[in-house]
Amino acid sequence: MNKLFRYTGIALCLLAPVLAKGQDLGQIRMDKALPSENEVSVWGGVEDGRFKPVHAALFQWKAGADACLVRHGRHTSWKGTLSLEQAMGKHLGSSLFLEPGYYPMDLWDQTTGKTSRQTGRMEIGLLSDLSDLWAAGFNASVKAAHESKLGSFRHSTFGMDAQLEPTLTFLYDDDAIFVSSYLVRLRTERAKVGQPGDGIPPVFLDEGMRYGVYEPGLGLFPVLEFSHGFFERFYSPEWSGGFGITWKRGRAGEQDYSRFRTPGSTLKGFFEVPREGFEVDQVYRITYQRDRDQLREARDGGYATLSDRVTRNASFNFSLRPHKGTLKRAGINLDGNLWRERGFVSVKDEIRMIGGTATVFASAKFLWFDLDVRLSAGGGRWLDRGRSYEEDNVLRLAEDWRKNMDYRLLPRVGMGGTVTYHPYFLEGFSFQFDTDWLRAFKNVHLGGKNRNIATLRVRYHF
């Protein structure tokens, strides 16, 4: 079964380009007169600085290629994308998982080394008319990634994320639709840990908030997660909205995935209201998402809860869209987060935090140039500093945890911009340069205040 997952993911990533635009699949039959689109691009970028999540690289470069295709037929529309990416970075200590923080447990090594990652993703979507009022289709995607660490402490991780989302669309009016979808997702990772030898420490198993145990000789750590859920949406010129929920069930550890259980759920929704004006349109959008995860370990014939965490995110977006002129879009986005994490068994600890970010953005177009700029400011604070009862047998990566809290809570400002050049002498080509700079007001445990990101992309649209 594991070989099947691996070979299927690799094969799908090597297929010819098939999909991707950001529009909801259920909407692509609303305007059947839209032209078909093709797009390919190559890109590369660097990222540097110490103001970062603990797992991120001190310095990292990335390069990749993308291909997109959208087709509209008489009764059927389909879209697709294919992307490949290579990343290489120097880590001062990192997670062995492909997406640190996604699972309620983690595997950490604290050695310095270079990490190489290859990622491939393919998505395909299809929507076909059943009648004048109904359309049905599906959206499917596969993402496969492999990461290996070079140096004295060697590890490798292979993971695959496969999703299938059947979709049903009902045309409520000439310009209003209902979209219903059901999501099925399978996610798997297998971390192979090098055997400890001279000077190579055992890996640290984080059971939540950097509490955990050292695992000597942990040769293989597999994770398997299945999730399913639904999402209901309504779109119209007057207002749009939607809500959905996803349930997750995961297993991890040992050859038969029997050591841990990781149940969880995700609840999300959005509401949007556009307002048309004589010269300027206004758009108001509110989104909300709540994620909950638990970690349970096999003990005495059952499973004991080790940790529980809940993350809530709410955002408000307001934008202005002038009908004429150089300025195309301007607005502000307010984003707020509430974290709560609790430990139950080896140590009784509870931490609550609140954070937020305000971003002002604007887009303009003049001659052959598109310009996007953004300014942001954010930070956070403790609502509850925790209640810890330290014991002699309790282990914690305290310094890593303090760095994690600094990155979440330190006040910071940021600025960035994207310049896109469409040369008149090369029809369909564009050259895009994107850069971001982030600076914290304090330097406590991270060792630096700055983070710089720059990316160059060459795109051909036909």
Mean pLDDT: 88
Low-confidence spans: pLDDT under 50, at least 5 residues?
A: 1-22
Shape call: globular
Q: What's the main sheet like?
A: 19 strands, antiparallel
Which range does the strand content fall in? over 45%
Helix coverage percent of residues?
A: under 10%
What is the C-alpha radius of gyration, as a whole number of Å?
Answer: 24 Å
Any overview of this molecule?
The protein has 462 residues and is mostly beta strands. It contains two helices and 24 strands. The strands form two sheets. The protein has a 19-stranded antiparallel beta sheet that branches. It has a five-stranded antiparallel beta sheet with strand order 4-5-10-11-21, with no helix packed on it. The longest helix is centred in the N-terminal third of the chain and has 12 residues, at 2-13. It is globular, with a radius of gyration of 24 Å. It starts with a helix and ends with a strand. Mean pLDDT is 88; it is low at 1-22.
Write a compact overview of the structure shown.
This protein is mostly beta strands. It has two helices and 24 strands.
List the topology elements.
Elements: H1 2-13, E1 37-48, E2 59-72, E3 76-91, E4 94-95, E5 106-109, E6 113-129, E7 134-150, E8 155-173, E9 176-193, E10 203-206, E11 211-215, E12 220-235, E13 240-252, E14 260-261, E15 264-275, E16 280-299, E17 302-322, E18 327-343, E19 349-366, E20 369-384, E21 395-396, H2 398-409, E22 412-421, E23 429-440, E24 450-461
Antiparallel strand pairs: 1-2, 1-24, 2-3, 3-6, 4-5, 5-10, 6-7, 7-8, 8-9, 9-12, 10-11, 11-21, 12-13, 13-14, 13-15, 14-16, 15-16, 16-17, 17-18, 18-19, 19-20, 20-22, 22-23, 23-24
